[in-house]
Every structure is written in C-alpha cells, then in structure tokens.
Write a structure and sequence with these properties.
It is a single chain. This protein has a 6-stranded mixed β-sheet with strand order 6-7-8-3-9-10, sandwiched between helices. It is globular and about 70 Å long. It is built from 10 helices and 12 strands. The two termini are 28 Å apart. It has a single domain, classed as P-loop containing nucleotide triphosphate hydrolases (Rossmann fold, 3-Layer(aba) Sandwich), CATH 3.40.50. Bound molecules: iron/sulfur cluster. The site of iron/sulfur cluster has 14 residues, from loops.
C-alpha cells in the first residue's frame, strides 16, 4: 500500500544568535531526524510531553515553518522547499486545527468573513456559491447560519473550536494536522469535538496527524501512535498494541501515569520519571532518554540506539531490544 503522507529524516533547528552582529551561538534541536508514514484516511497520533517538538514537527510538515532538512510528501508530491506558486495548490490539501481556537480566529472579523477569506483567496466561487458552501460547512460542524454575523468573542470555547474546524474544512483538505485540538476545552466539550473530528474523517476520508499530550484522547481517536521524546520518535505502534504492549521505557512511563480502564493493571508498577525533559539546546549524548530512564545501561550514555522492529508495524528505538 502506498502511503499518503511520507515524512523522511525531518530536522528542524532554530539558531541561537548572540551579540550585536547576531553571531550564531548554537541551535535548538527541536525536531531531530523523524520519519513516519500515514496511510490515506488514517489517524496517526503524535504524543509526548510539552516541549518535545510535536507542534514544531506538525508545522514543518505543513510548511508553516521551513524545515532545516528532510522531506515531506503528500501523495508523492514534495512539500518542503517548493516554489511559492506551487505551494498554494499544496496548501489547499493540507490544513491545521489549532489548540486555542480564540487566538487562531481574527477577533476583528465576523464569522462570515473568517470562513469566506480562504474561499476568496483559493476558490473561484460566485457570491451565491460562497454562501451555499459556507452554509453546508456550518451544518457539518453543527452550527447554525445565525453565527455568521457574530464575532469570535461571542462564542464559547467549544463553539469557537467548531468554527476553527469549519475554517479548516473550507478548502476541502485531504490532510489535517490537529494540534492539541481539545486541550483548551472543558472536559464535557472535548468528547463532542473528538466525535465531530471522527465523523468528518469518515465522511470525507480525511487523514489526520493528531498531536496531543493526552493519551486517553489519543486512544479515542487514533489508529496508530508515534511517541516523541526530545525531538525524536522513539516508538510507533497501532494504538491498541501500544497500550497493551508498550516496549520503550519512555512509552511505559507515559502510559503508567494515566488512568486507563484496565482493572488487571498493577498500579504498584507505576513509573515516575525523575527530572524534567533536558534542554533541546544541549541534548544528552547517546540515547536522549538516558538521563531519566529507569533501565539505563552504560551503552545508552554513548551510543544512540538503532531501530528494532517488534513486528512490521511496531518499530522501537532502545538498546534493550537490540
Ligand atoms: Fe533506556 Fe537505554 Fe533504552 Fe534509552 S536505550 S530507553 S536509556 S534502556
């Protein structure tokens, strides 16, 4: 099967500049050589602690941030480093849903203006065509046409996120990066938005990269999960396999810290990670997790682990499995 999204050796570094002449004094290694593929109509979760590089990776994949190196392909078309004129047609196929729907909506524009803006730039609709199309999109996200004359501050968090989703849908994208789309919402609203994203995926065969730090949310919506630590992907597996049979010590620690409905799970096995995630300016040598790993060995401090495949769909980067 050909993959719809292919990310290969993606790297993103932010230079640190010092002094009057802005001399480069180092780099923030935000995303470090990550590779994965997503099938058409699949949802891949990207999970990890705050600051591990998930959102930066999502923005590089969409071309919102220029990648330092590596390749991103949608349907075998290269996304990174393409000419601006060509980028416009690619961007129509790829959209983002942001974490904070309030800051991502222009407070000075009415909902009508917010939803029509992408249509005016990218699509060739008549005025009536625009109105009909917007009415259809609003219906899909569960909003009434009466919202069109109102402004973002007049809505609740859940309604604003529905407007954010409606805006992402206006260009009829095939691939959506959902960046923590429910983490700013009340728990009672989260399920509604997650179910909306799932039903839209089924109706339009959408492909999602679903970024979240919340493993319960990931389990609810994703088909496969990639676990990220300090800019690197350490394990990828189908969602149920990851929850039942995690292999990387970091994945095990993440899973042990969330309440999951497995009565047979032994709570005394809870793994508490010591210390904070190290600085991406000066990441640890060898395995980047070695400063916090409960199973660290001597080799881990010097040599980065190779990828070991537990099975065809379950790669893990850890010396314990080598
Ligand atoms: Fe822990 Fe070593 Fe595996 Fe890294 S390679 S996760 S330090 S056991």
């Amino acid at each position: 099967m050909t993959s719809f999204i292919k990310v290969k050796d993606l790297v993103k570094e932010f230079p640190i500049k010092k002094g009057f002449f802005g001399k480069k004094a180092g780099s923030v290694h935000a995303v470090n050589n990550i590779s994965f593929e997503i099938q058409k109509a699949e949802t891949l979760g990207l999970v990890g602690e705050s600051g591990c590089g998930k959102s930066t990776a999502g923005r590089c994949i969409l071309g919102l941030l220029p990648a330092t190196s590596g390749s991103v392909k949608i349907d075998d078309m290269e996304v990174t480093g393409v000419e601006p004129a060509f980028r416009k047609s690619i961007r129509q196929r790829m959209q983002i849903i942001f974490q904070n729907p309030y800051s991502s909506l222009n407070p000075r524009m009415s909902i009508d203006g917010i939803l029509k803006e992408p249509l005016i730039i990218h699509r060739n609709f008549s005025k009536q065509g625009q109105n009909d199309f917007i009415a259809r999109i609003l219906d899909l996200v569960g909003l009434d046409k009466s919202v069109l004359g109102r402004y973002p501050h007049e809505f609740s968090g859940g309604q604003r996120q529905r407007i954010g989703i409606a805006r992402a849908l206006t260009l009829e994208p095939e691939f959506i990066v959902a960046d923590e789309p429910v983490s700013a919402l009340d728990i009672s609203i989260q399920a509604q938005i997650l179910n909306l994203l799932k039903s839209l995926k089924e109706e339009f065969r959408l492909t999602y990269l679903f970024i979240s730090h919340d493993l319960s949310v990931i389990r609810h919506v994703c088909d496969r999960v990639a676990v990220m630590y300090l800019g690197e992907i350490v394990e990828i597996a189908p969602v149920e396999e990851l929850f039942i049979n995690p292999q990387h010590p970091y994945t095990k620690a993440l899973l042990s810290s969330v309440p999951l409905p497995e009565p047979e799970r032994d709570l005394s096995q809870r793994i508490i990670l010591k210390g904070d995630i190290p600085s991406p300016v000066n990441p640890p040598s060898g395995c980047k997790f070695h400063t916090r790993c409960p199973q660290v060995m001597e080799i881990c401090r010097k040599t980065p682990p190779e990828t070991t495949k537990i099975n065809e769909n379950h790669p893990v980067n850890c010396h314990l499995l080598g």
